[in-house]
Structure formats: structure tokens, C-alpha cells
């Protein structure tokens, strides 16, 4: 066996000592760097402390919390800006409604005439229909006013006699006392009432301004709305154009479907109410039917309120029996609207739970009155449709429903 010499043993020992020294130097240098990174006082590193001391659920909740706060502030600022310019917002909304309703007619007329002429003809036909309905209401009210006044006076007397009997047993002359108090109130506050009426002139000017602006915007929406949207999409970054295009297509499909569907539902309700009131010989059948038409634009709430007005008129002019029939009509039309018309006409456009619809109407009415109640449901429907298009579908959802916009 070969025995190494003393010189070789010394050389190998020196090599091992050099490697050990270099390893020790690296260890010392790492320890020094770790100590340099460590805060004063020997406290542990922040990232390692968070990883060991903070719950993962708490970190996840905090991450979602600040994102929700940012989104909430952005939404609040958007609605504050829209509320600041509420007349302009309302005019644009009405223009979109007119565009959704008249676009099929304009497209049909465009087959025989230029697009500009088709837009003008379509708007003129819509204005003529509106003035015809208003003229019919005015003529109906003027023709029945004298008879209605006599029937109303007699109806009030009949209601008074009915309330004086069982089961109410009111004191005789209670309604007369109420009428006298109302007359005294009007006499004492005549100046305030006149000022309120004069302030209504300013509101009338605002309404006319909104109508003219809506008509002006609808002309351009009908004539070149697709080109306006294409121009807007072209101003966005390339990566954002496709999602915006999908969101815009889904939003417009939902909005047009809702608008046309609610018009069909409102027209059906108005026809049924008008025919029923005419058969029951309740005065002002045509104005009450028109009131039902416009009230149906507020889901779940508008139709019962309009029919309640019809029930009061029937009670004052035709008696309690006819009023009870009108109340029964409220229940029947509500069932027809909720279980037949909405599923058939609006199921593809609006897939919202009735509770969501009710909360949307209430929140919209609290925020912006009647206009907010009308706008709330289509706004929530459009937002939900856009969310359904933009969110990434899960495998189970993709197999069950290939169209994300139709998910409830």
C-alpha cells in the first residue's frame, strides 16, 4: 500500500483547513447580513412575523376590504356626479328609451328611404301618437267632468252614510267636518299654495327642457349610435377594446329587452284595466288606463298604486261593490303580470330575483324619487348582465349555461 509522505499529508491538511475557513467565512458573512437586515432590538423580520402571527383569513379579508372601499368610493362619486346633473342624466336615459323603442321602426323605414329620413319619420310618428293619447285623455276628462262631479258628490254622501252604519258607526257629519277643515286649511294657506303653484311653472320648464334634450339626443342615437360607440371603443387601449365591446353589447341587449318588454307589459295591463273599468261603468276609464300604463314602469309597486286610485274613484262614483270588484282586479292583474307576462316577455332580458327587484325599486325611490324608481331596475339588470359577461366562467357554470348573461 502506498503511504503518503509527510509533505503530502501537510498539503491535504492545509487544503481541508482552507475549505473550512472559507465555509466559516460564508457562515459569518450570512449571519452578519441577517443581523444587518434585522431591526434594532433584535425584533424578527416583518414578513416572517406577518406570516406567523396574522391569520390568512384576516389578510384575505383586509385585501378585499380595501378593494371594496375603493370601489364604493368610485361608485359614490359617479352617482354624486349623476345626481348633480340629474336633468341631463334623465334626458339621456329617456333618449336611450326612445332609441330602444323606435330603432325597429327606423330600421324598417330605412329599407325604403335614407337613414336620416327614417329617423325623422319615426320620431314624428311617435310624437303624433303621444299627442293623440294626450288629446284623448283631455277630451275624455272634459266630456265626463260635469257628470263626474255630480257622481263624486253623491258618492261622498253614500260613503258617509255607509261609514255611519255598522261596523264603523262613525258620528254623523264626520265627513262634512273633514271637508270644512280642508276648506279652512286652503283658506288659511292660500298664499303658500299659490307660491307652490307658481314654483310648478319652473318645474314645467325643467320638464320641457328635459324633453327637448332627450329628443335631440335620440336623433343622433338613432342615426349614428353604432358609429358613436365604435368611435368610443377606438379611443381605448387595444387590450381593453374586446371586454368593452362585449360589455356594451350585453348592456344594450339587456336594456332594449327590458324597455320593449316593460312597454308590452304596461300596454297589456292598461288595456285590461280600461276594458274592465268600461264594463263596470267607472268614470274616467281612459285616463285611469293611461295612468296604469305609466305606473307599470315601476315594477311590483306602480300597478297596485294606479289600481288603488281607480278603486277610490269607483268607490266614490259607483259604490262599495264596484270598488271591491276593482280591488279584486288589482289581485288578478298582479298575478297575471307576475306569473304570465314577465316570464313570457322579459325572461331573456331580466333575470333578477323578485326581492332584488323590490329592493332596487325602494332604493331608487329613496335616492331619486319616482325617476329613481323607474331607472333602478333596468340599471341593476344592465350591471348584472355586464358582470355575467366579464366574469370568467367556472367549469360547472360553463357546462350548465354557455351564455353567462343568462345566469340568475
TrEMBL record:
Keyword Secreted set for record: no
Start and end residues of each stretch annotated as Disordered: 1-48
GO terms under cellular component: plasma membrane
Signal peptide segment: none
Keywords assigned by UniProt, alphabetized: Cell membrane, Membrane, Transmembrane, Transmembrane helix, Transport
Compartments it resides in: Cell membrane
GO biological process, one term: transmembrane transport
Broad class of the protein's primary localization: membrane
Coiled-coil ranges per UniProt: none
Pfam families xrefs: AI-2E_transport
UniProt-listed PANTHER family: PERMEASE PERM-RELATED, TRANSMEMBRANE PROTEIN
Protein name: AI-2E family transporter
UniProt organism field: Streptomyces sioyaensis
Amino acid at each position: 500500500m502506498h503511504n503518503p509522505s509527510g509533505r503530502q499529508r501537510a498539503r491535504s491538511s492545509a487544503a481541508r483547513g482552507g475549505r473550512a475557513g472559507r465555509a466559516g467565512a460564508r457562515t459569518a458573512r450570512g449571519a452578519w447580513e441577517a443581523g444587518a437586515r434585522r431591526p434594532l432590538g433584535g425584533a424578527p423580520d416583518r414578513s416572517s412575523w406577518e406570516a406567523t402571527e396574522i391569520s390568512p383569513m384576516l389578510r384575505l379579508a383586509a385585501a378585499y376590504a380595501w378593494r371594496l372601499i375603493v370601489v364604493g368610493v368610485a361608485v359614490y362619486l359617479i352617482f354624486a356626479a349623476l345626481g348633480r346633473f340629474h336633468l341631463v342624466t334623465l334626458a339621456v336615459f329617456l333618449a336611450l328609451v326612445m332609441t330602444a323603442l323606435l330603432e325597429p321602426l327606423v330600421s324598417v323605414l330605412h329599407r325604403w328611404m335614407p337613414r336620416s329620413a327614417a329617423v325623422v319619420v319615426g320620431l314624428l310618428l311617435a310624437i303624433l301618437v303621444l299627442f293623440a293619447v294626450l288629446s284623448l285623455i283631455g277630451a275624455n276628462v272634459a266630456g265626463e267632468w260635469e257628470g263626474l262631479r255630480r257622481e263624486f258628490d253623491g258618492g261622498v254622501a253614500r260613503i258617509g252614510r255607509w261609514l255611519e252604519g255598522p261596523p264603523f258607526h262613525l258620528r254623523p257629519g264626520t265627513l262634512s267636518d273633514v271637508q270644512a277643515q280642508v276648506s279652512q286649511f286652503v283658506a288659511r294657506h292660500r298664499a303658500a299654495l299659490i307660491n307652490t303653484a307658481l314654483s310648478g311653472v319652473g318645474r314645467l320648464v325643467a320638464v320641457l327642457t328635459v324633453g327637448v334634450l332627450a329628443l335631440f339626443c335620440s336623433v343622433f342615437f338613432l342615426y349614428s349610435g353604432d358609429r358613436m360607440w365604435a368611435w368610443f371603443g377606438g379611443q381605448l387601449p387595444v387590450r381593453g377594446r374586446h371586454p368593452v365591446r362585449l360589455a356594451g353589447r350585453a348592456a344594450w341587449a339587456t336594456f332594449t329587452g327590458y324597455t320593449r318588454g316593460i312597454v308590452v307589459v304596461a300596454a297589456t295591463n292598461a288595456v285590461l284595466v280600461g276594458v274592465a273599468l268600461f264594463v263596470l261603468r267607472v268614470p274616467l276609464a281612459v285616463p285611469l288606463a293611461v295612468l296604469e300604463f305609466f305606473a307599470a314602469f315601476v315594477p311590483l309597486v306602480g300597478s297596485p298604486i294606479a289600481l288603488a286610485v281607480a278603486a277610490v274613484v269607483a268607490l266614490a262614483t259607483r259604490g262599495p261593490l264596484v270598488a271591491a270588484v276593482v280591488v279584486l282586479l288589482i289581485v288578478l292583474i298582479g298575478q297575471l303580470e307576475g306569473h304570465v307576462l314577465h316570464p313570457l316577455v322579459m325572461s331573456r332580458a331580466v333575470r333578477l330575483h323578485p326581492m332584488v327587484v323590490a329592493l332596487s325599486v325602494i332604493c331608487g325611490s329613496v335616492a331619486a324619487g319616482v325617476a329613481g324608481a323607474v331607472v333602478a331596475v333596468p340599471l341593476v339588470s344592465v350591471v348584472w348582465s355586464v358582470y355575467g359577461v366579464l366574469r370568467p366562467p367556472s367549469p360547472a357554470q360553463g357546462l350548465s349555461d354557455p351564455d353567462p348573461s343568462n345566469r340568475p
